[in-house]
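A further point concerns the way the authors explain their paired sequence and structure data. Each protein is reduced to its one-letter sequence and a matching series of backbone shape codes. An entry of this sort, consisting of the sequence and the corresponding backbone structure tokens, reads as follows:
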Amino acid sequence: MKYINTNNVQVFTAGTHLPYWVASTEPIAYTKLSENKKTDVVIVGGGISGVTIAYCLSKSGKKVILVEDGYIGSGETGRTTAHLVSALDDRYYDLEAKFGEANAKLIAESHIAAIDFIERTVTAENIDCDFERVKGYLFLHPTDKPDSLDKEFEAAKKAGIDLEFTTIALGDNNHKALQFNNQGQFHPLKYIKTLCELIVKNGGEIYTNTHAKEIDYTGITTNEGFNVSAQSIVIATNSPVNNKYMMHLRQYAYRTYVIGSKIPKGSLPTALWWDTGNFEANSEIAPYHYIRIQKFDDEHDLLIIGGEDHPTGLADAEHILEEDRYTLLEKWGKEHFPQMEKINYKWSGQVMEPMDSLAYIGHNPLDKDNVYIVTGDSGNGMTHGTIAGILITDLINDKKNNWREVYSPARFKLFKAGKTFFKEFVGGFVSYLKTKPKHLDNTGLKDIKQKEGKIIEFDGEKLGAYRDENDDVHFVEVECTHLGCIIKWNNDEKSWDCPCHGSRFTHQGEVLNGPANKPLRHYSQHKDFLTNI
């Protein structure tokens, strides 16, 4: 079973497919909160951001309580590919144009510092998490402009990145590439598991299967009515569940896909690779491929390849279903890495893409000064989450940090984001609204197959219907509990996804991804009841 439910709340991982990281570790579970608590800082979210923040704060002497509504790492941290990079998803020449030279240097500095922080922590705390320093190689996608690598070299060098030109062999072809030195990789769940143990050792408390139903500047209230009151509140839920409007107008959600294939041990160097992105698929935010090697067993390494991104809930806009994206990844992978054999793992994840390419870390806009958020990972969640641990700890401890302004959630660079924002967010939203009245799947209940979901009209009401492996049908309301957009069925991860802001729900209506913080209304009917419908 991929979903493990306790009172219809706890979720093992945010989808049907089991990522390698989740499959190779025991669940990181703690007890459920069962009484009122008071603390210095309460943190909502048990991914790398929340755990690193809790670890840093506990080391600084703060009393912390962390709550997670699933297991530790059961959200996007368990569904990453765990690249640790200063070679970012977004080109440094774009970051320089948006933020200026001085801020581009701060951005580079922060990601370098994040990798250094992880390395120091792994060494100091003796964490067995497969951490390695590796080289990363950025090579040109055929649809990109030939001078792209030259521009990136100049801008990244100015920002303080250690890189050089080189040539790499992929498949039958040699590629000019930028070699980024001193990058890294690790096993994310092994890493945060030990951080959790250290948080508890430092006097912190962690509660899993604990949903923060209500959040304000005084603390949180759980589904069961227990309160955690705190001097500072940190929301580290990938997409902030306490900020209903503002932040969700500044970022948009993408699904990204991953495959893992066992290859003969040592047949490829341990390294990271990325192409510059397919500009024919999307000229503004070009979906790219990202690759790494993971130690597997005595005879094999695991080749991990990701890509084929699309806006959440809108895969059909490109006429490529979610479940077909893995086939495209496999085809691309075999062309570039002939060592590949069969696919051993596949999964998808969710990326929050901010309008100006940089994460939002700091005070929650239009809120009390003691409320903080972390969001907008922009495909670099492992380093952005670590930056959050350093930065938010400094903010709470009233310590100067040079990264404060550049990562501020209150920044607003609409005109710098320009056409990217309007094309991706506004354009995509308008396209969604045009299809909303026709959103019915034009099918009856009898036509829905096992493990398939459709939006149907039933007894005069529009409902999401899913037929499970026992032929029982689960109904959910079709309006997302965030802002009422109509959900769409994701047949790959067996979830109901919202095209507007990226909320996702299980077939039983439980929240998998924010910004929604309430489940969909759900009820089920036994197959015997449905026989004649």
